[in-house]
Structures are given as C-alpha cells and as structure tokens.
Amino acid sequence: MNATTGQNAIPTVKLLIGGEFVESQTTEWREVINPATQQVLARVPLATQAEIDAAVASAKTAFKTWKKTPIGTRARIFLKLQQLIRENMAELAALLTAEQGKTLPDAEGDVFRGLEVVEHAASVGNLQLGELANNVANGVDTYTLLQPLGVCAGITPFNFPAMIPLWMFPMAIATGNTFVLKPSEQDPLVTMRLVELALEAGIPPGVLNVVHGGEATVNAICDHADIKAISFVGSTKVGTHVYNRASLAGKRVQCMMGAKNHAIVLPDAHKEQTLNAIAGAAFGAAGQRCMALPVVVLVGEAQRWIPELVAKAKTLKINAGTEPGTDVGPLISCAARERVESLIERGIADGATLELDGRQPTVPGYESGNFVGPTIFSNVKPGMSIYDIEIFGPVLSLVNADSLDEAIEFINANPNGNGTAIFTQSGAAAHRFQEDIDIGQVGINVPIPVPVPLFSFSGSRASKLGDLGPYGKQVILFYTQTKTVTARWFDDQTAATGLNTTISLK
Questions:
Q1: Interior angle at CA 199, CA 198 and CA 201, nearest 5
Q2: pLDDT tens for each residue of 93-140
Q3: Average confidence (pLDDT) over 373-385
Q4: In this protein, which residues make up the domain named Aldehyde dehydrogenase (predicted)?
Q5: Where in the chain is the domain with CATH 3.40.605.10?
Q6: Does pTM top 0.85 for this prediction?
Q7: What whole-number distance in Å separates Cα of residue 227 and Cα of residue 441?
Q8: What is the pLDDT of residues 407-417, one digit of tens each?
Q9: Fewer beta carbons below 10 Å: N end or C end of the chain?
Q10: Rounded to the nearest 10 degrees, what angle do helices 236-248 and 215-223 cross at?
Q11: Selection from 55, 81, 20, 23 nearest residue 180 by Cα
C-alpha cells in the first residue's frame, strides 16, 4: 500500500499478481472508511478485466510447478506463516479494528480463529492421504490419489476480513492448488497485510494472487474458464448468484450464506451464564456475524427473564473499537446503520414490543460513527420483518414457547440452518434437541457453535450451497480430485492368464 500524490495523500490498495504488488490501472475506486470516525483510510481499486485475467494467468502458470512441490515443503510454509501471524497479532488487530470497527479483543479473536486454520494447513501431510486396498483381485491393487484441481478462487465478506480469507487460501494452497483471492472492498487492509506475511513465509510468485472489486469482479471470477473452484462467504443473495453462475460454468462451488440463528432457553438453565452468553452472542461485533444469535426462544418460566436480559444488555459499553472496555463497536457503514435503524422501525410497526431501543446512542468523541446499541424486541412472530430478515446488527428478537417440542418445531420451520443452541442443565433435553433439530451446527450451552478446524464448518439448508464446508476434513475433498488407480504388475514367472472378455478381474 503506497501513498498517492493527491491532495490528501490517501494510500491506495494494491493488486497482487505474479508475486508483485502492483498499482491498478482502473478508473474506478472506492474508499475504505473507518466506521467509528468516517476517516478515509485508503482507496481500493475495482480491478479491470485485464488485471483479473493476468492474476488468473499467473496462478495457472504457477500451478504447473506448485502441484509438484513436495507436501512437506508446502506444510513448512504454513508453519512459518502461523509464526508470523502470532508475531504481528497486535498490528493485524489494529488494522482490522480501524477498517471494520470491531473491538481490539474481538479483532484478535478474528485473527486467531484464522490462525487455527493456518495451523491445520500445516498438517496437510496427515490430511491429504489416499486409500489403498491390497490384492482386491488376483495380483491387483486399488488405491486413490487426492490431487489438486488447479486455479481456485475465494470471495470473502467484510465482517471477518482476517478469519475468512485464512479459511480459504491456506487450505487451497497447502493441497497443491494456486489461488486468486477477492477480499471485501469495504475492508481489505488487514487481508493485504496477511497476504504480505504469506509471501514472507515463502509462498512462491503466482501461487497466491489478489484482485479487488465489486459485482463485475465477482462475475469475472465466476465466468473465468481457468478457475476450477470457488469458495464464497457472504449474503444469501450474492451467494446464490455465485453458486448458480459458477456452477453453470462447470466449477466446483461452496457458498456459506445468510443465517437466522436461534437458541432455546429452558427454565432449568443456569440463569447468569445464559444471560451473559445471549448478550455476548447477540450484540458482540455489533451483531455482524453470520453465527450471531438474533433469535432466542424462551420456554415456559424462562419468559420471566426478559427484564434481567434487558438489564444485562444495558451494561454493555458502546464505543469505538479502539477504546478500552468497549463491548459494541460501530456497524461497517452508514448504509448498514440506516438499514438496521429502518428494520427496528419496521419491528415496532409490525407490533413487536420494543424492550430496549439502541438507536442513536451518544458516543462522545465519535459522534459521526455508525453506532447502534443493543436492541431487544419481545413478542416477535414469523411474518414480522425483524424475524424474517437477517438484520446483521445488534438486534435481538425474543419468541415465546410453551415446551421444548414447540420450540424445536418453531426453529425447524425457519429455512436457515447455520447454527442453533440450547441452554439447559438437562442432559435428556439436550440430547433430544441435538437429535431432532434440523440445523447443521449445534451448541449445548454454547451460543456460537463454530467448530474448531479439526472439524468442518457444517451450516445447512438455506444457509449453505454445495455439499462440502470450508476448512476441516471436508475442505480437503473440496480442493482435490480423487483419482482411483487399479494396478496389476507381471514378472517373467507370472503364469499367462489368457484372453478374457468378461468384466471381472481374476
């Protein structure tokens, strides 16, 4: 990132093509803005078609040698990268907070959860193993090879600009592919710093490339004949578009999309721990998580906990992410703030009970920030906008149910399936919940059940398109092609078997 020669010397974000950070020749730019102050941090280019083609061509050329690089050599690069990320954690968190808004501790968590995937990528030697069946017929062995696909691409969202890129390119590259990354144009700075560290760790020129842009860049990635697979995380609207367009172009695609996560609270739950968990999951990161908790189903006597939940939410500190003790930072943009405020207004109009109004909070020193405080509605029902739409803000909807069965039925009726949770001290209730709930990721007294990278992210139903998730064992299959080899060897002492026109091997 270099300074331009304009009046304000605003830095420009570079493209990465063939191992070199290059200035885009585009005429279209957008600004990267600090959401707490409205300060312009940088200008990011909307890459030209020629630049996108050059990035893909660079990756295609690099694949010829990278796919033959020993697996141990690839693994050691990611051992080095995880070390570099740890050494630069404070800088990465500060960059992330400045452009995205989340608190510094949450920004470190963002980086750390990505770091865990980098560590997992360093174990690729144990992950990318085929299978062997010896002597499946007379003198015949069958075995499989997991071979890389070629050029792969990733399209990442604004809400986790460190973690989600690290979900993608380390696993793709560790398995022998080359990669073209398109970060969110709203906050690409921490992503680019991670890319710099990846090159420092030893990723060769052309193996990792970066292009920037909006819809046109996304479409170019979907359409490009030399890209074999695409990983996407973002909204349902864009993810559905990417999946349909890229699949029609013959690509392998995985899309992690929108959500409307629910938690059930049973009356026997540990009250203080449950209230803390709900408040943290609903309002942390200003609700800008696909695994946030925007809906809580209160069963029976737990419906009496609403005043205490409101009181808990009122204790959360709203401020810039850089300020010590901040719990809730700003939303990513002015447009996001206006959208969330509009949905709160619609919730009131639809008849939900506004228990806590977080609109237009006073934040001294950051009056121009995109702040919305914790907001709670009760008596929420399907058909209300605040229930049907993914708000992506610090707004919690409370729903009443008379029984666990009713609560499970209510959640299963929602089309989304990213994550769900139950709060209870009953093992029998928890077991019934995990068996009967039709959601891909389940938490038991855990409000945000995102699995560690030893497992795979397993969102389901309308929250996911494609059958394999990012990171974990599933992503090894996503980024490789299984080749099955059936072999028989003969020597001079082997008896001749004669001509055989049947299908069997003997």
A1: 65
A2: 999 999 999 999 999 999 999 999 999 999 999 999 999 999 999 889
A3: 98
A4: 21-485
A5: 15-257+472-485
A6: yes
A7: 30
A8: 999 999 999 99
A9: C
A10: 30
A11: 55
Q: Are 355 and 376 in contact (CB under 8 A)?
A: yes
Which of the listed CATH numbers 3.40.605.10, 3.30.70.80, 3.40.190.120, 3.30.360.10 matches domain 15-257+472-485?
Answer: 3.40.605.10
**Does the annotation count 152 as an active-site position?**
no
How is domain 262-444 classified at the architecture level of CATH? 3-Layer(aba) Sandwich (3.40)
CA–CA gap between residue 393 and residue 388 (Å, rounded): 14
The burial of 237, by beta-carbon neighbours within 10 Å (0-12 exposed, 13-18 middle, 19 or more buried), is given as exposed
Give the residue range(s) of CATH 3.40.309.10 domains in the chain: 262-444
List, in sequence order, every beta strand (DSSP E) within 129-226. 132-137, 140-148, 151-155, 178-182, 208-210
Sign, CA dihedral 368-374-379-382, equals positive
* pLDDT (0 to 100) of residue 3: 44
Task: Report the C-alpha gap between 80 and 72 in whole angstroms.
Answer: 12
Q: Order the strands of the 262-265 sheet from edge to edge.
A: 353-356, 375-378, 395-401, 295-299, 262-265, 420-423, 442-444
Cβ-contact 271, 86 below 8 angstroms: no
Task: Name beta bridge partners: 421.
Answer: 263, 443
pLDDT over 90 (residue 492): no
**Are the C-beta atoms of residues 179 and 59 closer than 8 Å to each other?**
yes
Return the structure tokens found at 464: 């996911």
506 has pLDDT over 70 = no
Mean pLDDT of 218-231: 98
Q: What is the pLDDT of residue 115?
A: 98
Query: Active site residue: 152, 222, 255, 290, which one?
Result: 290
Report the relative pairing of strands 464-465 and 252-256 from DSSP bridges.
antiparallel
The Cα 377–Cα 407 span in angstroms is 18
